[in-house]
C-alpha cells in the first residue's frame, strides 16, 4: 500500500546462516528485517509532551490529525483491508505533523457481506444487556467472512468484538478511531478497562445500554460452546443507562462539533457508525479551511536518541 498517511516500507533485509549438508556449506536465510521510514514518535508521545507542558496541542492539530487518520483509513478500507489494531501507539507522527498508520501485524483482507444488514438509528435505553449478548451470539446464516475476535488492544476494542462476534466489518477500525479522537480531546484514554467485562461496563456507562431489538444485526458469532465473562449467566443485568458521551466531551478542544463526530464514530451498532468517507464530510473537519500539516506548529522532539556502541545500547 502506498499513501501519505501509511508508513512507508523502505527496504527488506535478510540475514543468513551457514548450513552444512553433504559436505557443502550453503547460505540459508534465517531472519527477515523490514525497514520503514523514520518517524519522530507516535500519538502517545505527543500526548505525553502535552501533559508535561512541552507542547501545545491546538484545535488545528487535532483537526488535522483526525482528517489524516480518516484519509489513511479510507484508503485502507477501499483496498478491502481491515487494520484491526488502531491505537495511539500505532499512529506514528513526523516532526512536521504528518500522521502514519503503522503496525500491520493483525491486518488482513476483508470481504464485505453479500447482504449488508439494514442500518437503523434505534438504540433504546434500558435493555437487559445479557439478553443482548445472547442475541449477538445466535447461530444464523453467516453473511460475511468469519475472523478471530481476539484482535485490537482492549481499550480500543469495539463492543461487537467484546461480544464475541466473528463476522465483523471495517466498522471495528472506525470504533478505534473514535476512541483515538476522543483521546486527543481529553488527553487521556476514553475507556480504560482492566478486562473485557469492565471494558463493556465503561462503554455502556458512556454510550448507554442498548436494546436487544436494535443491537448487533450482524449475527455470526462464536459457537455456543465458547463463552466469555460477558455471557456468564450468574451475572446480574447491567443497569439502564442513557447515552452521555457528548456531555463527557463537553468543554474539550473539539467543541460540540468534535463531540458530535466522536459520538457518531462510537455508535454501539456497527451498522450505524460513520464510514471513513462519511466522517471526512463531518462539520468538525470543515469549520475552517483544512490546513497543510507542514504549516502547523511543528512538534517538539518527542524521544531522546541514545547512541549505541558496537551495537549495544
From TrEMBL:
Record carries keyword Kinase: yes
- Gene3D superfamilies attached here? Phosphorylase Kinase, domain 1, Transferase(Phosphotransferase) domain 1
One Gene Ontology cellular component: cyclin-dependent protein kinase holoenzyme complex
> For the region Disordered, what residue ranges are annotated?
214-242
Keyword Cell wall biogenesis/degradation attributed: no
Q: Which GO terms describe its molecular function?
A: ATP binding; RNA polymerase II CTD heptapeptide repeat kinase activity
Q: Any signal peptide, and if so, which residues?
A: none
GO annotation terms (biological process): positive regulation of transcription elongation by RNA polymerase II
Domain (Protein kinase): residue spans on this chain: 1-285
Which keywords does the record carry? ATP-binding, Kinase, Nucleotide-binding, Serine/threonine-protein kinase, Transferase
Q: Name one Pfam family in it.
A: Pkinase
Which protein family is named in the record?
Answer: Belongs to the protein kinase superfamily. CMGC Ser/Thr protein kinase family. CDC2/CDKX subfamily.
By its UniProt entry, which PANTHER family does this protein fall under? CELL DIVISION PROTEIN KINASE, CYCLIN-DEPENDENT KINASE 12
- Describe the protein's quaternary organization and the partners it interacts with: May form a complex composed of at least the catalytic subunit CRK2 and a cyclin.
Name this polypeptide is given: Cyclin-dependent kinase 2 homolog
Which organism is the protein's source? Nannochloropsis salina CCMP1776
Amino acid at each position: 500500500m502506498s499513501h501519505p498517511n501509511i508508513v512507508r516500507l523502505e527496504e527488506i533485509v535478510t540475514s543468513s546462516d551457514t548450513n552444512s549438508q553433504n559436505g557443502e556449506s550453503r547460505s540459508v536465510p534465517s531472519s527477515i528485517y523490514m525497514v520503514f521510514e523514520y518517524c519522530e514518535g507516535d500519538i502517545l508521545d505527543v500526548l505525553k509532551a502535552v501533559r508535561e507542558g512541552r507542547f501545545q496541542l491546538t484545535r488545528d492539530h487535532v483537526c488535522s490529525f483526525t482528517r489524516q487518520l480518516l484519509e489513511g483509513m479510507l484508503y485502507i478500507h477501499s483496498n478491502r483491508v481491515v487494520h484491526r489494531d488502531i491505537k495511539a501507539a500505532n499512529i506514528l507522527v513526523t516532526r512536521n505533523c504528518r500522521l502514519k498508520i503503522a503496525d500491520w501485524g493483525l491486518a488482513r483482507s476483508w470481504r464485505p457481506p453479500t447482504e449488508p444488514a439494514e442500518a437503523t438509528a434505534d438504540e433504546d435505553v434500558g435493555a437487559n444487556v445479557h439478553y443482548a449478548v445472547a442475541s449477538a451470539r445466535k447461530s444464523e446464516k453467516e453473511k460475511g467472512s468469519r475472523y478471530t475476535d481476539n484482535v485490537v488492544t482492549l481499550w480500543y476494542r469495539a463492543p461487537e468484538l467484546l461480544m464475541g462476534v466473528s463476522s465483523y466489518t471495517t466498522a471495528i477500525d472506525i470504533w478505534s478511531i473514535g476512541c483515538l479522537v476522543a483521546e486527543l480531546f481529553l488527553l487521556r484514554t476514553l475507556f480504560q478497562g482492566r478486562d473485557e467485562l469492565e471494558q463493556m461496563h465503561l462503554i455502556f456507562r458512556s454510550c448507554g445500554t442498548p436494546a436487544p431489538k436494535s443491537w448487533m444485526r450482524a449475527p455470526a458469532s462464536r459457537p455456543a460452546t465458547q463463552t466469555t465473562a460477558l455471557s456468564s449467566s450468574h451475572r446480574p443485568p447491567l443497569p439502564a443507562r442513557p447515552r452521555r458521551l457528548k456531555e463527557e466531551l463537553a468543554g474539550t478542544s473539539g467543541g460540540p462539533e468534535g463531540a458530535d463526530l466522536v459520538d457518531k464514530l462510537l455508535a454501539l451498532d456497527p451498522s450505524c457508525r460513520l464510514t471513513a468517507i462519511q466522517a471526512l464530510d463531518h462539520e468538525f473537519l470543515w469549520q475552517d479551511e483544512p490546513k497543510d500539516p507542514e504549516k502547523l506548529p511543528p512538534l517538539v522532539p518527542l524521544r531522546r536518541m541514545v547512541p549505541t556502541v558496537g551495537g549495544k545500547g
